[in-house]
Amino acid sequence: MSKTPIIRMENVCIRYGRGPEILSNVNLSLEKGSFHYLTGKSGAGKTSLLSMMYLAQKPSKGTVSVFGNNVNFANRNALAMFRRRIGVVFQDFRLLEHSSAFDNVALPLRVCGMNEKEIRKRVNELLKWVEIDRSPTAITSTLSGGEKQRVAIARAVINRPDVLLADEPTGNVDNDIAPKLMKLFVELNKLGTTVVIATHNENLIKEFCYPCIHLKNHGVTIINPEDGDEYAEI
Predict the structure, then answer these.
(1) Which runs of consecutive H residues, i.e. helices, occur in the chain?
(2) Sheet containing strand 35-39, strands side by side
(3) CA-to-CA distance for 85 and 173, rounded, in angstroms?
(4) Exposure check for the chain: N or C terminus, fewer CB within 10 A?
(5) Distance CA 223, CA 157 (A)
(6) Diameter over CA atoms, the chain
(7) C-alpha closest to that of 169 among 138, 128, 200
(8) Cα dist. 13→75, 162, 163, 222 in Å?
(9) Is the pLDDT of residue 234 over 50?
(10) Is 95 exposed, middle or buried (CB count within 10 Å of its CB: 0-12, 13-18, 19+)?
(11) Over the stretch 141-175, which tens digit does the pLDDT of each residue have?
(12) How far apart are CA 56 and CA 76, in angstroms?
């Protein structure tokens, strides 16, 4: 484990416009190679917390550090470099709708300048894992919601990011494939990727036991599997 947290939030608050604070005085430290769920009721601030982690939003107050760097005042170029090390699975997918499933997943590798032979090998292997191998050339707009979710997950993990952030990554897939996708996240975590998954899926939390970053009353509590009843009630 690294002595410097890969993500750190100190006294972080966030609000939109003049509205009330969504999150207040959040202190959170995630070590390299850790795995956490992000839980809480709808409106608790899960998406807001994730957006700060993937550097799409800055806090109203407090400090956010990523990879040991205070990003509050980082310039555009620095933020772009940090984002290349972060894989994100968005709840609304954010895929290139008029490109193929293959090209969507290949995009992060092409941005990094990888040769096409290696790209084809990696992308085809991963599409097979997420069961999109029968239609890799299909235009994304023609895919079902569950298929788009799997393409989005494949795109997020294809370059083996230092951090993977996923917002309800199993929300649009069948119950039989959700555990398989979770195993993909677990294997990526074993390779050293720090994983944070926002979810309401109690079955997955019980089957794959990891600590929860639980949002309640505008704040954060870390709940571990060994916390018994408190963990079981998430």
Answers:
(1) 46-53, 76-83, 101-111, 116-129, 145-157, 178-190, 202-207, 229-232
(2) 86-89, 163-167, 194-198, 35-39, 212-216, 219-223
(3) 26
(4) N
(5) 26
(6) 52
(7) 200
(8) 21, 25, 22, 18
(9) yes
(10) buried
(11) 999 998 999 999 999 999 999 999 999 998 888 88
(12) 11
* Calpha distance 194→8 (Å, rounded): 13
pTM of the model: 0.91
Q: Output the CA–CA distances (angstroms, integers) from residue 82 to 68, 78, 114, 173, in the order listed.
A: 11, 6, 19, 30
Mean pLDDT of the chain: 92
Q: Where are the alpha helices (DSSP H) in 1-96?
A: 46-53, 76-83
Q: What six digits make up the tokens of 170? A: 């199993």
At 171, list the tokens.
């929300």
Structure tokens at 193: 């990727």
Q: Could you tell me if 179 and 189 are in contact, meaning their C-beta atoms sit under 8 angstroms apart?
A: no
